[in-house]
Design goal:
By secondary structure, this protein is of the alpha/beta class. The chain folds into 2 domains: 3-45 and 147-213 and 314-364, FAD/NAD(P)-binding domain, CATH 3.50.50; 87-140 and 214-312, D-Amino Acid Oxidase, subunit A, domain 2 (D-Amino Acid Oxidase, Chain A, domain 2). 26% of the residues lie in helices and 27% in strands. It is built from 10 helices and 20 strands. It has helices at residues 11-22, 57-60, 63-77, 97-107, 117-123, 147-160, 230-233, 280-288, 340-352, 357-364, and strands at 3-7, 26-30, 47-49, 82-84, 87-91, 113-115, 135-139, 143-145, 164-166, 171-175, 180-183, 188-190, 193-196, 214-224, 238-242, 248-251, 259-263, 301-312, 319-323, 326-330. It has a 6-stranded mixed beta sheet with strand order 9-2-1-13-20-19. A 4-stranded mixed beta sheet has the order 6-7-5-15. A 4-stranded antiparallel beta sheet has the order 16-17-14-18, covered by helices on one side. Strand 19 and strand 20 form a beta hairpin. Helix 3 crosses helix 9 (340-352) and helix 9 packs antiparallel against helix 10. The radius of gyration is 21 Å and the shape is globular. The structure holds flavin-adenine dinucleotide. Residues 7-13, 30-33, 37, 40-42, 47-48, 170-171, 197-201, 218, 220, 308-310, 331-332, 334-338 line the site of flavin-adenine dinucleotide (FAD).
Amino acid sequence: MSKALVVGAGVTGLATAWGLIRRGFAVTVVEKGPIPNPTAASSDHHRLIRWHYGDQAGYAARMGEAFAAWDALWVDLGTHHMIETGVIAVSSEEGDWADTACRTLDGLSIAHERMTAAEAVARFPHLDPNLAARFVSYTPTGGALMANRILEGLRDWLTANGAEIRTETEVTAIDPDQVRITTAQGNDFAADVVIVAAGISAPGFNFPGAPKLVPTSSTIVYVEPPADLATAWQGAPSWVDFGGFDDLWGIAPVDGLPLKLGLGRLSLPGDPATGRVASEEKIREIVTAYRGKFRDIERFTVTSAQTNFYTVAPESRFVLQRSGKAVLLSADSGHGFKFGALTGLDAAEAIAEPGRFDHVARRMAGRDI
Ligand SMILES: Cc1cc2nc3c(=O)[nH]c(=O)nc-3n(C[C@H](O)[C@H](O)[C@H](O)COP(=O)(O)OP(=O)(O)OC[C@H]3O[C@@H](n4cnc5c(N)ncnc54)[C@H](O)[C@@H]3O)c2cc1C
């Protein structure tokens, strides 16, 4: 039986371990914190899954496979961790992100419903009655992947299916030729293949030939609508864009959670060691950006906010690269969670069938349609 070592237990590392066990590997996962680790990009109540993908046709084209991979995971876990809210994308000017995304979907014959602003406001009464929109695009599928529950579910499935999971164990060095890792705790592990899925820490391993991977901060704000708007928010869709180029995205209230507001325009390179405070100024800027989008947003209550980091690769593409018997896997760039289960199956395919490695890497990079 081939032995695999996975460094990092975010969604990428855990799903890769899942894919490898399904293919008969013996797997050890080494994680520097707990699972979930609150500082991991993967850790939060939920992450958005949606079809709209701007001009990145290679990723839009794979969304069907991404949903199918989650379905395969739910079967193994014996439970679902996705709550479908549907998703809207709003275009306010020609050629903006949502407009481009809809052209991409049309080009791929992926169904979505188009409506006018007035139709959208009538159907979704949480929207501002004066919403500025050329059109609103809606998919009934998509919504919230319950991130921490997925990480916990994968951890428990892996343990029940023979994987060795080492938490609170920081990998300090990787030897790709000897296929060994060394940890701060003094352990030494050997295997047939080692997969580096260490998120923002990946650059520290100086992986030969690795592209530039840039830690990038993202602040999200959880808010509660006033009681008189609770009915308007019932059954509200999540959203991936509200027009222009601000990159407003977020998740509707699900499972007793407040709604989650994001503002991609404020996501910038930063230092994960010092940049994790969500400042009052940033929180205010994010909530204010929703004026004219949600009815009476100024009456909402901020319940919490957090700044976390993801890893951006060139052109925001996923990276699968090998050196000797080591594999670097960074399926992130701020859009990796929705592909988590598929990434795990892809990575396992590339590792189990080395002749297909380059093909799988191209596919994961969104270069094949
Ligand atoms: C605020 C925010 C919002 C996002 N929203 C979305 C969204 O709505 N939809 C979406 O699809 N994607 C979203 N993303 C992106 C998505 O969360 C990431 O692409 C994905 O979670 C990356 O997973 P990962 O496993 O590669 O990295 P991580 O989750 O960061 O996992 C890496 C793991 O490696 C561990 N590690 C690091 N160094 C070591 C070491 N030396 N030894 C051992 N372990 C180590 C870390 O502790 C961590 O647990 C968002 C990201 C952020 C930050």
